[in-house]
Automatic annotation (TrEMBL):
Pfam families: LysM (PF01476). Residues 111-158, 175-219 form the LysM domain. InterPro entries: LysM, LysM_dom_sf. This is Lysm domain GPI-anchored protein 2. The lineage of its organism: Eukaryota, Viridiplantae, Streptophyta, Embryophyta, Tracheophyta. PROSITE patterns: LYSM.
């Protein structure tokens, strides 16, 4: 916990980080998570300890489908599972989060790691899981009284830190961001479009100078707005910037990109699973539009066939929305700079349609 001052930088700016060796080892795992019993999806950075494949990462974190891992990393769906990445590559790991009774969030009984010969708790925490947790945290959630006594074949729950709390009254996806050496709070705030006070508050830091390199920081990722209805099987569909997701039984692919005015862009995924259901039509009823199709008029009114959710029986809901995409002198699809109000989606549902074709099994 030694502070190493960087005098010249301090002179230049008061919000520079002081990079300290990681060691904030508290036993209570997780980020602040006050919504008791809440569950949600979270992301965390995993720095590969060796040169390895997507498949081995998927196995380590028990991610059911390769496409979930691909979507979190914005990798093409065609990426093979034997795709190899060099050591130190950072991948985003998607996982289910749950708030515990004591106000912290940890991965919901996943991943479960099976002890192999010559393993030690420290090795598992620091090397296999690249310091996403401390060995004391693994020890605590697994009720291990003596850290030196683990047995080959023993199953260990690795409690990844996460949260399901709203931030500033808005739903977000909490991201365990691995702080690169040399970064500072101001840079992180700018990169993820959050505020210093939010970042410090979430992470229990008194001062921006308390940021630790290599620590896992709780960064709230803003999500795209959607037309998904309350009641839909995937409500609320929270897709953060720079990721996509597959929903409606993999029939629909939705991408979130800050450059599209933070409006979720959904289209038919084109995926057909070997033994899976046939996807129903995704056309907006009464129009020639399929999901994702849009047209602009001369007033910069953009009509889009948008995704509105799906039902237990597989029915896909669509809605025709209108967005105003008129920036002063620039009527492209709204780059998010310039006027504060421009790019704001004024999405009026004009037609809500039920696609009554259901899944053929
Ligand atoms: C390399 O890392 C992967 C994923 O973390 C792990 O499954 C594998 O056992 C590691 N291989 C070696 C040789 O340590
Ligand atoms: C990956 O798998 C494919 C098919 O399963 C195979 O053709 C290819 O050679 C493999 N690539 C590597 C690098 O192992
Ligand atoms: C908080 O809850 C977790 C999981 O239930 C538990 O492992 C941990 O020991 C608790 N911490 C405290 C301080 O009670
Ligand atoms: C650890 O012990 C507590 C209470 O002693 C119990 O509630 C909890 O289920 C145990 N956890 C595991 C993983 O065995
Ligand atoms: C959105 O994602 C892009 C690319 O992944 C990134 O460059 C940008 O900083 C992100 N913006 C916000 C506000 O998160
Ligand atoms: C950053 O957030 C503010 C407030 O939420 C928003 O108005 C602005 O468009 C965002 N900037 C980017 C680049 O997304
Ligand atoms: C969703 O609908 C349920 C029941 O109709 C309601 O209790 C709940 O508050 C709604 N949630 C939101 C976020 O509107
Ligand atoms: C409508 O969307 C479908 C599916 O994404 C696409 O194949 C097609 O080219 C689009 N048509 C128009 C007119 O944009
Ligand atoms: C464009 O949208 C505005 C408000 O959303 C509406 O008043 C106007 O009539 C629309 N223009 C056209 C040509 O549809
Ligand atoms: C599927 O669900 C929708 C809405 O819940 C309903 O309108 C439709 O009739 C259902 N279709 C079948 C075949 O059950
Ligand atoms: C941009 O903002 C200025 C002042 O706030 C306003 O007068 C102007 O109409 C806005 N332009 C657009 C395209 O919203």
């Amino acid at each position: 916990m030694e502070k190493i001052l960087i005098p010249t930088l301090i002179l230049l700016c008061s919000i520079f980080t002081i990079i300290q060796p990681t060691s904030s080892q508290t036993t209570t795992p997780g980020f602040k998570c006050t919504t008791r019993g809440a569950t949600c999806n979270s992301l965390i950075d995993y720095k590969l300890p060796n040169t390895t494949t997507l498949s081995s990462v998927r196995t380590l974190f028990q991610i059911k489908n390769l496409r979930t891992l691909l979507a979190a990393n914005n990798l093409p769906l065609t990426t093979p599972q034997n795709q190899t990445y060099p050591a130190s590559t950072t991948l985003k790991i998607p996982f289910p989060c749950s708030c515990t009774n004591n106000g912290t969030g940890i991965s919901n009984h996943r991943p479960i790691y099976t002890v192999v010969p010559n393993d030690g708790l420290y090795h598992i925490a620091a090397e296999v899981f690249s310091r996403l947790v401390t060995f004391q945290q693994i020890q605590a959630v697994n009720n291990i009284s003596n850290a030196d006594e683990i047995e080959v074949g023993q199953k260990l729950w690795v409690p990844l830190p996460c949260s399901c709390d709203d931030v500033g009254g808005e739903k977000v996806v909490h991201y365990g961001y691995s702080v690169p050496t040399g970064s500072n709070v101001a840079g992180i705030v700018n990169q993820f479009n959050t505020t210093e006070s939010v970042l410090l508050e979430l992470n229990g830091l008194k001062d921006a100078k308390d940021l630790l390199a290599d620590s896992v920081l709780d960064v709230p990722l803003k999500v795209c707005t959607t037309s998904v209805r309350n009641g839909s099987m995937d409500y609320p569909l929270l897709v953060p910037n720079g990721t996509y997701t597959l929903t409606a039984n993999n029939c629909v692919r939705c991408q979130c990109n800050a450059a599209n005015s933070w409006v979720l862009q959904c289209e038919p995924s084109g995926i057909s699973l070997p033994n899976g259901p046939t996807c129903p039509s995704t056309q907006c009823a009464g129009t020639a539009f399929d999901l994702g199709n849009s047209t602009s008029d001369s007033n910069c009114n953009l009509s889009r066939c948008a995704y509105a959710g799906y039902n237990t029986n597989g029915t896909i809901l669509t809605t025709l929305t209108q967005e105003s995409t008129c920036p002063a002198g620039n009527n492209n699809n709204g780059s998010p700079s310039g006027n504060g109000s421009k790019g704001l989606r004024s999405s009026l549902a004009l037609v809500a349609s039920l696609i009554a074709l259901h899944l053929l099994r």
